[in-house]
């Protein structure tokens, strides 16, 4: 574990992530993360990807994917989920 990483509980991390989403330039109403997993050193965020009726990516899906990737890049070096 990186000495600069802080161990954090899931709900606290989701609160931080959702605040960052709300401040992101690509934010739109309804965009939020509802889950997070630790995969090795990377935090993987999940939520509604706004898929269409056939389960395919919709117009907003790319923005959601990019914002969740942004969260992973920004937060993974800083935090590790409590086990």
Tell me what the structure shows.
With 83 residues, this protein is an alpha+beta fold. The chain has a single domain (6-81), classed as GMP Synthetase, Chain A, domain 3 (2-Layer Sandwich), CATH 3.30.300. The chain is 35% helix and 19% strand. The chain has helices at 10-23, 61-75, and strands spanning 6-8, 35-39, 42-46, 79-81. A two-stranded parallel ribbon has the order 1-4. A two-stranded antiparallel sheet has the order 2-3. A hairpin with a 2-residue loop joins strand 2 (35-39) and strand 3 (42-46). The protein starts with 5 loop residues before the first strand and ends with a strand. 14% of the residues are buried. The mean pLDDT is 95.
- Give the biggest sheet: 2 strands, parallel
Mean pLDDT across all residues, rounded? 95
The structural class is: alpha+beta
DSSP summary: helix tally:
2
CATH topology, by name, is GMP Synthetase, Chain A, domain 3
Superfamily (CATH H level) name: Protein of unknown function (DUF2498)
Give the ordered list of helices and strands: EHEEHE
Q: Any chance you could write out the topology, listing elements then pairs?
A:
Blueprint (H helix, E strand, L loop, with lengths): L5 E3 L1 H14 L11 E5 L2 E5 L14 H15 L3 E3 L2
Parallel strand pairs: 1-4
Antiparallel strand pairs: 2-3
Protein name: DUF2498 domain-containing protein
Pfam family, one: DUF2498
